[in-house]
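Section handout, structural biology tutorial.
Before the tutorial, make sure you can parse a SMILES string by hand: atoms, branches in parentheses, ring closures as digits. In the record below the ligand is zinc ion, and the chain has 74 residues. In the tutorial you will relate the predicted structure tokens back to the input. Do not try to memorize them.
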Amino acid sequence: MGRMMADCRRWPSDINCSLTIIGEEDEVVEAASQHAVSAHGHEDTPELREQTRGFLEPAEQYRPEGREKEPMPG
Ligand SMILES: [Zn+2]
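Predicted structure of the complex:
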């Protein structure tokens, strides 16, 4: 299995976050969940981790120039 990406640039946020996390799936879920808690004020719950896992994209989709924002689902 290839590396995965969690890209904060994908979502609107009040801090206009530019962080992109790339690594093995479990590493990215862990790091992105901690980031969501520390930087975006989410609660660290199993649901947060499930949602984070659902947002992962293949790392090959990384584009350095940025991307269009998408509405946050749910
Ligand atoms: Zn962020």
